[in-house]
Amino acid sequence: MKSKKKIGVLGASGYTGADAVRLLARHPNVEIAALTANTHNGKAMAEVFPHFFMLDLPLLTEWEKVDWTGLDAVFCGLPHGTTQEIIAAVLKTNPAIKVLDMSADFRLRDKASYAQWYDHEHRALELQDEAVYGLTELYRQKIAGARLVACPGCYPTAVLLALVPLVKAGLVDAHDLIIDAKSGVTGAGRALKQNTLFSEAGEGLSPYSVASHRHTAEIDQEIGVVAGTAVKVNFTPHLIPMSRGELCTCYVRLKGASADDLRRALEDVYRGEPFVHVAKKGVLPQTRNVRGSNYVQIGVVADRIEDRAIVIVTLDNLVKGSAGQAIQNMNLMFDWPETIGLEQIALFP
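The structure assignment produced for this chain is given below.
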């Protein structure tokens, strides 16, 4: 039996980092060798996340104290803005290490666009040029040969899987895309924020970052690639009072097609894909259908307005929307079967 790959997780005390640990702990080909969380330095992972009580994991440590030369890959769950210089330092220490970045720091190809959306100049421009956008189903071959993969945000993952094939096939108007998105509160991170307190978020639904959410830039970028022109989507996210899960309702203008044509096109594109499922006519995606899994479910409905259709897509924001997709990409980078460690069925009820 070949030796296992040694894996590190930067930012293991956050929700995305913790879900990476949850999934990697049962991955047959890896060993979790380092976990970092500077604010929890010296603690056991089970002190920060009690549901890991049964796992024998390394103690949390400061990232500067990790021997990166002994690792084969690292997952980064740090906040945007803090990732660039740390990943640059890790790669300088170990140029052969494979990096799965779950932050937003390397997703945008255009340097001016990054500065516009994230309010500061990029601090590792040479790596930004190298990074491969990690939406597995779109960039599988590039990911397999990459050293640095910028895993997409949860909203772009859902929206792009639903809409890119339709725009690419010329079935919908790329300049008339309206996206109503809803995500569980883990999408806002684990830091203490007033709007995610139980009394603030519970029993209510609230829009946020209206007309200014940073994930919009990723959606514009990738739809623009297949459209062959710059596009601007109408994107509004909402916070919904549940821990995990995401559902996006996309309103599209048809170009000489029907809702059935859209469904058939999606079925053709995703036939054989292990994690993307196109629902049959009359079946509507629901967050409970994918909770805790790496699966995506897409449904198409004819709008009552002529020449329009509604495309609904759901995923778990922490799995396919973050840590699960990162592991899917890691599997490609090590030339392993893509589904290893990710075949969990959705948790229901």
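Interim note for the steering committee: The two ends are 38 Å apart (CA to CA). The CA atoms of residues 72 and 228 lie 37 Å apart.
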